[in-house]
Amino acid sequence: AQSVTQLGSHVSVSEGALVLLRCNYSSSVPPYLFWYVQYPNQGLQLLLKYTSAATLVKGINGFEAEFKKSETSFHLTKPSAHMSDAAEYFCAVSASGSARQLTFGSGTQLTVLP
Amino acid sequence: EAGVVQSPRYKIIEKKQPVAFWCNPISGHNTLYWYRQNLGQGPELLIRYENEEAVDDSQLPKDRFSAERLKGVDSTLKIQPAELGDSAVYLCASSFRTQGGNTIYFGEGSWLTVV
Fold first, then answer.
1. Parallel, antiparallel, or unpaired for β A73-78 and A19-27?
2. What does each C-alpha distance from B54 to A10, A72, A82, B71 come to in angstroms?
3. Is the distance from CB of A71 to CB of A25 less than 8 angstroms?
4. What is the pLDDT of residues A6-38, one digit of tens each?
5. B1: pLDDT confidence band, cut at 50, 70 and 90?
6. The pLDDT value given to residue A98
7. pLDDT above 70 (res B8)
8. Are the beta carbons of A102 and B45 separated by less than 8 Å?
9. How near does any CA of chain B get to the CA of A55, in Å?
10. Residue B13 near chain A (CB below 8 Å)
């Protein structure tokens, strides 16, 4: 069984400030972890993924995330927020191995203030 | 490369009416998924296909929902009859293999409103 908890359903940052979106996971087997972004009225787009290689993962649009096994976390960061980063962000987990069960968190709405 | 294509994008129907959604996955992707996303929540898996076989449909409400993937390519998700609680976004997605690390690509979704 696996689950994801995203702390903070809404996060607001000023343009140029650090973005930090929190994700904690639970998995009975080594996990694969993903961050997706969803812009209004659109589907989900993959930002980055962790698949047991480097623990610091770099994604698109300047985002990165660090897998910390001891903390069961996979927080998403970006050094400097842009107005275009305003969207909903979803953390997701799947169990490594042959069966693919992608379980999503409830999402974090990011607002970027001018 | 074309992405996952879904239609219709938006649908408004009265309760008890039927509705169908169509999905064309990325070419060559053998795994196809249907997810439902309620407002303010993350997507939840309804059904997963490997080629034309439904390998995980445990979350599909089978009394009113049905899905098919003929010839292992396009897929259709049907609701009959629709209820008010079915209002949601229905997301189709596809991936190349059923492996935990492979990326799942999502379509733009079919937005259903039941009135």
1. antiparallel
2. 36, 32, 42, 12
3. no
4. 999 999 999 999 999 999 999 888 888 999 999
5. low
6. 45
7. yes
8. yes
9. 14
10. no
